[in-house]
Amino acid sequence: xxxxxxxxxxxxxxxxxxxxxxxxxxxxxxxxxxxxxxxxxxxxxxxxxxxxxxxxxxxxxxxxxxxxxxxxxxxxxxxxxxxxxxxxxxxxxxxxxxxxxxxxxxxxxxxxxxxxxxxxxxxxxxxxxxxxxxxxxxxxxxxxxxxxxxxxxxxxxxxxxxxxxxxxxxxxxxxxxxxxxxxxxxxxxxxxxxxxxxxxxxxxxxxxxxxxxxxxxxxxxxxxxxxxxxxxxxxxxxxxxxxxxxxxxxxxxxxxxxxxxxxxxxxxxxxxxxxxxxxxxxxxxxxxxxxxxxxxxxxxxxxxxxxxxxxxxxxxxxxxxxxxxxxxxxxxxxxxxxxxxxxxxxxxxxxxxxxxxxxxxxxxxxxxxxxxxxxxxxxxxxxxxxxxxxxxxxxxxxxxxxxxxxxxxxxxxxxxxxxxxxxxxxxxxxxxxxxxxxxxxxxxxxxxxxxxxxxxxxxxxxxxxxxxxxxxxxxxxxxxxxxxxxxxxxxxxxxxxxxxxxx
Amino acid sequence: xxxxxxxxxxxxxxxxxxxxxxxxxxxxxxxxxxxxxxxxxxxxxxxxxxxxxxxxxxxxxxxxxxxxxxxxxxxxxxxxxxxxxxxxxxxxxxxxxxxxxxxxxxxxxxxxxxxxxxxxxxxxxxxxxxxxxxxxxxxxxxxxxxxxxxx
Lengths: 503, 151
Known about the structure:
Chain A has 503 residues and is an all-alpha fold. In chain A, 73% of the residues lie in helices and 1% in strands. In chain B, helix 3 (67-91) runs antiparallel to helix 4 (93-108) and helix 4 (93-108) packs antiparallel against helix 5. Classes of the chains: A mainly alpha (503), B mainly alpha (151).
């Protein structure tokens, strides 16, 4: 119950103001198609440099929470999911809006998001210290395998091709080796003075997540504003609350599915929303109404995608393994303040860790309150032409990358990585495993070197890295995640082939 | 997406992977390249697999690039490249950003170019955005950007 002692810190004037800014800004950014939660959080990192660690994390955490929920606004009113996590919301939410129930759909989405989100953060509060204690038993070989696990799980589960996902991860790991070697001080792959200090994580995150979005908007050419916003008629919040409570099954399935999926590294909100939607439909008495504007569909999808936010941070805060691309960006936010998450985070920086987690709990409630009132305005923002959005994101990216250490080198690195990622994405590669490789590379290398020193002095590399129950368990999880993804890929290919044969 | 669109990028990645592996195995001191060797080996195996799959015509993932996309992308990419690699340092951040924002907005804005109010809207939007950027980065965050050529 240590977290209760740090609740007051969230309500300190500056912290609470940042929580409000992050929440309202996140709702608006989330409603804007093309601005993913990961990109929004990456672009916000430069604004946290001048803040204390806890304050910076409050801003980033609030933005993360509310961009996921804000994505429902454009999903419901424009039929364009603000983020991949809101795809399932579109199925029933937009149909409800077309039937004149737009306000009700929005209210249901924010209320169920808050229920799911609060449950998810409570899970984070109670699971994190337990796992952190367990993580104390981890030695260099375990931490090495954990880092590899982080890259392979995201690489295999987050990509449409397992091999390309794993290849993206290894590109990230290779990029992480650029710069000076920590032990010998030797130069490695420094082909340009900009790379002397290695690749700056923040500049890389901005480049890998923001620049491909900018180029995607350019590639669409001179486009008129997106779909027409459906007008929202007034609807009582109390009635919406009663409506939500009429569907406890959808709320429970959504919340539990999202929480469980959130705990698995690499499985994002998109999967959480779709799985919860599908499971709720299977268990519903009105399954034929799904897709025709049924409230259960909105409740399940939104409860799930916000319930996964809290649990997705558990692997990050306990084992320093980001469970999602956004968690990887948050790790970047922690590292710039010299805070390294892991087993001793709660011993060395309890104020930072608990204030951040508590702010996410309060943030869920604020997100719901503001969401109910800001939704209409957010939908208007979602109509901002892509020509403006592309230029805004480009200039923000340049300023953001430069402000990390006032270096043009970081801007060049950001631009090169961004253009490279855009073209890689066109050929089926994914940014998430590459980022994870870049972030976890130094962790993997440090533990590999440390482990090999211990191994050389004791039982040898084979026994040290491949022996022991925990090592074998982690290796088994790595192999299982890859095997599962390969099996899924083969299944999908067979289904596609069968579909092509029929037509 | 035709076969060559799979072969060319996967071939390039395989070439880069092989080069990194060669560097890792030939550079000294060997201890400093222990981890890069491990990763580069995995890189070569995976990129080789992807390349062979592409050669055999079994690569299916990805949407590739097409002529229309390149035509739409080219001006934006060129302006962004000039802005980042030359103009930001030469003209100063705010001057270069103002020009870049205005150019990109004008090129990709679907509003008719012949109307005066379209141009007024573009200038006003650019000016307001740059004021916000100045307020955020220079006044709030105190980021010292390269000296401006005009002021």
